[in-house]
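Recap from last week: sequence in, structure out.
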Amino acid sequence: MSNQGYVFSYAIGLIFLIGGILFMVMLDEHRFLFGIPYTAMGLLIVVGLHEGRKRRLRREAREAALLGEDADLEDS
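Predicted structure tokens:
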């Protein structure tokens, strides 16, 4: 995912998360009916993006380490 896509998706997740919290705080009736689903969607988006980014960085580091080991073996 490009950086622009990551930032846009993160912003959408934060909008859902903050909106869900505001629904639960500001509404009188049906506050949990609207607030919990929006908060859950926001959390899923934000946490999913965060975990996906960590997983990608670990994979890239592992691939770089493997390429470094291969280069060391070819130099010998």
